[in-house]
Amino acid sequence: MKLLQIIFSLFLVFFPTSNGALTGNESAANAAPLPVVLWHGMGDSCCFPFSLGSIKKLIEQQIPGIHVVSLKIGKSLIEDYESGFFVHPDKQIQEVCESLQNDLTLANGFNAIGFSQGSQFLRGLVQRCSSIQVRNLISIGGQHQGVFGLPYCPSLSRKTCEYFRKLLNYAAYEKWVQKLLVQATYWHDPLNEDAYRTGSTFLADINNERQINNDYINNIRKLNRFVMVKFLNDSMVQPIESSFFGFYAPGTDTEVLPLKQSKIYLEDRLGLQSVPIDYLECGGDHLQFTKEWFIKFIIPYLKQ
Q1: Which of 56, 58, 33 is nearest to 109 (CA)?
Q2: Which one, of 126, 163, 170, lies nearest residue 144 by Cα?
């Protein structure tokens, strides 16, 4: 018996990994990549082959073996599309939280990419859904301080867009409009900040502008990194600096304050002072980026 123990000990000395254990480098090389969760924007769906369907495929091609979840709100693609206009963000976030926390493939954490309004919805998810663990939060063309204007609206018809604009311009903070139209929940009127803070049923809450929710702060601080992408020729986000968490100075619709000059940052109302933030720019219109740009600037965050 002692002879067998000696032989086994010598075997481990000369062949330390032959028992199936991996060294640190081998573990890193063979570890499965972190999953990725995608949240689409207004006028889009989880799986259209010309939008998020192609992004999902691109990520899978660039990172073999990765698990990609493209979020679908509701039970069908039609419901998913309509959710971008008519399902309140609170309800969407609750549905997604329940879905993701029960997905065992995401139990060890995941990276998340939001497109347009999906960006602020994902941030709301991070802040409200403590049972999940998002590592890198990537916002592509998001509106983190809201919008004050809807110059371009990817809806089914021009008449529908005009109707939306009128509602937002004249009645954004009416309760029935907040319940009816998703875009009203992140409409931010800098000329009437009191009405915004009182009437906004989503953005003012997740930005901690009414009262401080410490869970929001603590959950944001768990992020490894917060990445924001701004499109330099964006014809949809107004002001475009909202994609970098900037916005008009209170009382004006001309002067823009960057994030680090805003009350949200200076008073650390969201814990953003403790999170590494990357600001990326893309020269196109709203969500108009090339495959090459995505591979160069976004894929590296998914490989970390």
Answers
A1: 33
A2: 126
In a domain, 17, yes or no: no
In the set 88, 234, 243, 262, the catalytic residue is 234
Residue 177 φ/ψ, nearest 5 degrees: -70, -40
- Containing 89, the helix (H) or strand (E) segment is helix 89-101
234 given a catalytic annotation: yes
Q: How confident is the model at residue 264 (pLDDT cuts 50, 70, 90)?
A: very high
228 domain residue, yes or no: yes
pTM metric for this prediction: 0.87
Query: What one-letter code names the amino acid at 207?
Result: N
Total tally of structural domains belonging to the chain = 1
268 tagged catalytic: no
Nearest alpha-carbon partner for 40 in 135, 136, 97, 116 = 116
Collect all residues with Cβ–Cβ distance below 8 Å to 126 and sequence separation of at least 6.
Answer: 112, 132, 134, 137, 219, 220, 222, 223
CA trace torsion 114, 268, 91, 227 (10° rounding):
10
Q: Which domain holds residue 232?
A: 36-146+211-248+255-301
What pLDDT shows up at residue 29? 44
For residue range 283-294, list pLDDT tens digits in order. Answer: 999 999 999 999
- Of 42 and 304, the structure prediction assigns the larger pLDDT to 42
Q: Write the DSSP string, 33-50.
A: PPPEEEE--TT--S--TT
Tens-place pLDDT, residues 172-225:
999 999 999 999 999 999 999 999 999 999 999 999 999 999 999 999 999 999
- Of 70, 116, 119, 200, the active-site residue reads 116
Residue 173 placed within a domain: no
Q: Which among 40, 88, 188, 286 is annotated as catalytic? A: 286
CATH number at residue 87: 3.40.50.1820
